[in-house]
Amino acid sequence: MDVDQANADAPERPEPAPPAPASGAAPHGSFAPAGDPDRDVRIGRVVSVAGGQVVALLDNAATDGGDAPQIGALVKMRTADSTTFAIVTALSIPLPDQDSPGGEVRVAEIELLGETVPGADGQTSFGRGVSAFPGLGDAVLSTARQDLSIVYARPRSSAVRIGTLHQDKAVPAYVIVDELLGKHFAVLGTTGSGKSCAVSLILNSVLAQHHNGHVLLLDPHAEYVGALGDRAKVLDLDSLQLPFWLLTFEEMVEIMVGSSGNEAEAEAEITILKEAILAAKKTAVGDGGDSTPITVDTPVPYTLMAVVQFIDRAAGKLDRPESAAPYLRLKNRLDALRADKRYEFMFPGLIVRDNMAAILSTLYSIPVRDKPVTIVDLSGVPSETMNVVVSVLARMTFDFALLSERAFPVLLVCEEAHRYAPQKGDAGFEPTKRGLARIAREGRKYGVSLCVVSQRPSELDAGILSQCNTIIALRMSNQSDRDFVGGAMTESA
Fold first, then answer.
1. Of the candidates 217, 242, 468, 473, which lies 20 to 30 Å from 279 by C-alpha distance?
2. CA-to-CA distance for 462 and 257, rounded, in angstroms?
3. What residues in the chain have per-residue pLDDT under 50?
4. Model pTM?
């Protein structure tokens, strides 16, 4: 199908009549054979059936007369109880003959898609999957415009129009909103293939009919602001708030210690940091610390000053100056983070307050107030902190959906997802991948949906992509990406 900027209200009005095709020609952009788009034409017969794969021997008269199918064309075969539809996936001439091309054997490989069966009410509807397979020698027919309208008819459930069929520009294309969001979806394609345009179109089409949605979009390149217009508000480094006390200990270690350097030195710093953070949290809780269980991961607002004071006291108790090296490294790193303007959204200053309600309200558009989309502009976030920010947002999104008991369904859109949810276990930040994988596996139970956008699907975690029931695959130049996406899809459709 072609994705266009169709008005989301268009499905509620009668579809415009298509321009009449020129005599003897298929409609513009059609994959149907040339001629009248409203008639059936026999183009061949079935010579092999193997599971969902069919091989057809094409009629020379049909192909010479301009009725030859093209790759991607929809064809049909009639059985005793149904009409089976399939898509042409390959065309070949096994034994080319330069002297007599008209007498050559021409073969089409076809993959079964679904079938139409008359219902009890007399209405014919299309369903995926095939219950009655075509037999050897059955005629393979081209599809008429009426067939396309049945196969790609507007679903009876809530659906939005996102474009037209590439086979016939006169037939609109729809997506089922509940299926798209309830079972996650992915938009894949190389740079410049139109991923951002496709995502923007889908969001605009859905939100035009569902005004009170809640969308959190992670934008590492600041490219969605213009596309979503007045429906979105933008959180950049000046307006984003993710205070450090929201971070888990693992996320704090990634920022304070990192993964480079000497392993023994890193372990010493991690041990000191754990003790310092735990002491700072217990100090923040005060008298309630004895009755309230506090762990290093408990989201308690604490101050960095308390962490620094613990480090100073612990370092002062040491007998040898060289033993203070890990304490000094941690303290210097803390001072550098607090002085770096790029980290103000995470380390705002000396005053720390519990503003969780305001943070959730801003991130998830509660109340919506005509801006259901929150774009988190990550273009200014330091690269070494990007994975931690995404980890926090993914974790918060899942926990928010879980605790709100589906009161506020949320869609999390992850642009450039292969950067922070890579296939390789030694690449990226493991908590980020775990957070996204948890949404992919369990999110639909609690009302949180996932949209994965990537230009390198072969580098994306396969477990996350496997949970996306809808895949919008655009142009891909890399062979490994094409093979990876082909393996993730159940059929050529």
1. 242
2. 29
3. 4-35, 289
4. 0.82
Rounded (10°) angle between helices 249-256 and 263-285:
130
3-state secondary structure 242-299: CCHHHCCHHHHHHHHCCCCCCHHHHHHHHHHHHHHHHHHHHHHHHHHHCCCCCCCCCC
Helix H segments across 137-237?
A: 145-151, 177-182, 195-209, 225-228
pLDDT at residue number 28: 35
Contact 251, 391 (CB under 8 A): yes
Find out whether 300 and 285 touch, Cβ atoms under 8 Å: yes
pLDDT of residue 124: 81
DSSP 223: -
Q: What would the two tokens of residue 147 be?
A: 């067939």
The burial class, CB within 10 Å (0-12 / 13-18 / 19+), for 336 is exposed
Q: What is the spatial distance between Cα 111 and Cα 113, in angstroms, rounded to a whole number?
A: 6
Strands ordered across the beta sheet of 172-176? 2-3, 159-164, 172-176
What's the Cα-to-Cα distance from 38 to each of 27, 60, 145, 148, rounded to whole Å? Answer: 11, 22, 5, 10
Residue 157 contacts by C-beta under 8 Å, 6 or more apart in sequence?
A: 176, 177, 178, 179
First to last CA, the chain: 10
Token pair for 315: 């370092």
Q: Which two tokens stand for residue 204?
A: 């605009």
